[in-house]
Write a structure and sequence with these properties.
Layout: H1 2-14, H2 16-25, H3 32-47, H4 53-75, H5 84-101, H6 106-114, H7 120-150, H8 153-185
Helix pairs in contact: 1-3, 2-8, 3-4, 4-5, 5-7, 6-7, 7-8
Length: 186
């Protein structure tokens, strides 16, 4: 059950821009917002006992997502839904950025899950990767904000539902290739 809920939440998060576009473009799809709110609540419920910065961030995003869905339904202000990607980028920037000054950088924590004994060179590398992700969240969040302020649903959907995912995938893939090259050299 927990795995199915996690899969359903992952699909809903990835499809968020398309689902928002449907809800805003076709009035009979607005009831979908209630389903999304319930999914966000269930996601938050499943994360309630989890620990760590990413779990707390996921819990906060679940709360924000459910509040945006419910507020959009109750207030009949569907444009509120457009702000979710801005909140996601701001929260991720906060998580990654604060990890650079407090404790271990987030990418290093993730790397240590697979490889507990990282050499000093890898520790420096993970710090740089965390900084690159911070820059990505600043850029992506700024463009997401601009698409909200322009109130152009087609542009918002294109950026938040396609281009930002492609850029994120390219960043992950490029980092993975660079890491493999560095491992061969070491």
């Amino acid at each position: 059950m927990r795995a199915a809920l996690r899969l359903l939440n992952g699909i809903a998060l990835l499809a968020w821009p398309l689902l928002v576009w449907l809800a805003l473009t076709y009035p009979h799809w607005r009831t979908l917002l209630l389903v999304l709110a319930v999914l966000f609540v269930l996601r938050g419920w499943s994360l309630r006992k989890s620990h760590g910065a990413l779990a707390r961030g996921g819990l906060l995003l679940a709360l924000v997502g459910s509040l945006l869905c419910l507020a959009s339904l109750v207030l009949r202000q569907q444009h509120l839904l457009l702000w979710y990607p801005v909140v996601v980028n701001a929260l991720m920037l906060l998580l990654f950025g604060t990890s650079l000054w407090r404790g271990m950088p987030l990418v290093e924590r993730i790397a240590r899950l697979r490889e507990p004994q990282l050499p000093p060179r890898a520790v420096r590398y993970t710090r740089h990767v965390t900084q690159v992700w911070c820059l990505f969240f600043v850029f992506n969040g700024s463009v997401a904000l601009m698409t909200c302020l322009r109130a152009d649903l087609a542009l918002w959907t294109l950026w938040n539902g396609c281009i930002s995912y492609l850029l994120m995938g390219m960043l992950m893939g490029g980092e993975w290739l660079l890491r493999q090259r560095m491992r061969k050299q070491a």
